[in-house]
């Protein structure tokens, strides 16, 4: 073992031991570079992993600020003695300061490099307003807000960050963390990198929210307007975080609003159309199957148009955006039939 490696392990061990002294659990884990960048791995893959953050160590996002380039806790009186110093060191050496700030800056700069025409198309379909998202007025604070947006979760109605657990990367095929009444935890045995499912999403929104491409297993609609049998149908695009539940619908004066419909599912391909049918039962004068196909068709046409609008510079950002559009078209093909009533 080199001196550099030993020094790193000593620092990691000290970080973990102090976390445990506050009541946290971090067993059989270490941060390393992997295929997804920095992430957590088991020290011994033959043994189980456990990460647990008690609720009193969760850090409310409104209690954080960026001061002189460092993530700091505004009011430390809510936490055990010494926690503020530990947490600020954790952010500087393993999260915000280790990789997060640099990767977020690179991604946001890439978005800003898109052509004005592409930016306007993304804005017109209410998918992304790049200039509003990071206007460049105070870059550090804007990057910090994006950092918070990519790591926060809602726990008991409050947005919080999870010390240690926030270092775990995403996989749509894994289970999510466990939210207990008094803690958030990850447990299990892993052959390779420790991964969790952050949330329900699709390739398009995952890329625009987090800055990485991922073959998600669900597909949701873009926002759009359709004409169907003399009625205007407005589709509110976006992610339904309870994707296997009925969507909200509203019908008034020959106008219908459908909210965030699930269009496809890799694992349950018969569910999207069934959910859509069941959601539309009370609507008058429509053929729900036909509307479902109209939504699919317009999504594909919009995505193809967006792909054609991407420049030929082959930048990392352009290639990433093109890949997420192609992945979105791919996942939208994963639906067929209708699940039988149970």
What does this structure look like?
The chain is α+β, with helices and mostly antiparallel strands. 38% of the residues lie in helices and 23% in strands. The chain has 10 helices and 19 strands. A 4-stranded antiparallel sheet has the order 1-4-12-11. A hairpin with a 2-residue loop joins strand 2 and strand 3 (37-42). The model has no long low-confidence stretch (mean pLDDT 95).
> How many E strands?
19
What value does the Rg take, in angstroms?
A: 22 Å
Q: Note the main sheet.
A: 4 strands, antiparallel
Strand content: 15-25%
In terms of per-residue confidence, which ranges show pLDDT below 50 for 5 or more consecutive residues?
Answer: none
Q: Distance N terminus to C terminus?
A: 59 Å
How are the strands ordered across the major sheet? 1-4-12-11
Helix content: 25-40%
- The H/E string reads HEEEEEEEHHHHHEEEEEEHEEEEEEHHH
- Quickly count the helices: 10
Taking all residues together, what is the mean pLDDT? 95
Structural class by helix and strand composition = alpha+beta
Shape call: globular
